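Predict the structure of Elongation factor 1-delta.
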Amino acid sequence: MQFPDAMMHENIWFDRPKYEEEREHYELFLTNNLSSKLAETHCKESKTTLNAVESKKATSGSLLSSEIAKARDSIKQSLAETGSSSISSLESENKAMQKTITELVAKVAALESRVTKLEQAAHGTTTETAAEKVQKAKKDDDDIDLFGSEGSGDEEEDEAEKKRKEELLAKYNAKKASKPALIAKSSILIDVKPWDDETDMALMEQKVRSIEMDGLLWGASKLIPLAYGIKKLQILCVVEDDKVGTDILEEEITKFDDLVQSVDIASFNKI
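Done. Here is the predicted structure for Elongation factor 1-delta.
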């Protein structure tokens, strides 16, 4: 701050508060001027920036609109080319299909006519054959001599035919008799239960196998635990159905009543 020269040379400054106030007013003035300048500068810069942004937006908008217009034109052109090619291909396919259908219709018609001719021919042949059969049957009926008016030559032929049939029948019977007859057999699994755990199972099996019959063949056997140390004898046999039955086997085994408590048929299968 600059002061007048007269006041600067004074030794005592009596009006200092006044000058301090004036100094503050001056500083405030300078501050207001600076703020206004800064505000004006900022407004100018904002306007410049806004104008630049608006110009850029306009430029980009024009570019975008031109790109969109170009894209629309290319899409229209491609659609037009694709549509024309698709239509032409569809027309060619339609013509080929119509041609194929026409050929198929002609082939089907020819096939139907051929089948009709074949059916007519077959029907005519069948009818003719039936008529021939009827005429032949009538002729055979007419040729039959109910009163034996034919000569002895036919009788000799009948005797020879009869003799030939008898020979054939004899050969058949001999062949049938020489063929071995099929024997029906069954496989039977028998459970033989003892009285208690002190029964001699080996002796029981020996007694069971001692049963002999025509058509009976004993097979494998094993001991199966039941309960409380008691075991049962399970034995397999093969029998001829016409000679040996299950009732006979059970009856024969239960005869050893000192060893055998009961007999059950575990399984029965035809062979």
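The first strand starts at residue 185 and ends at 194.
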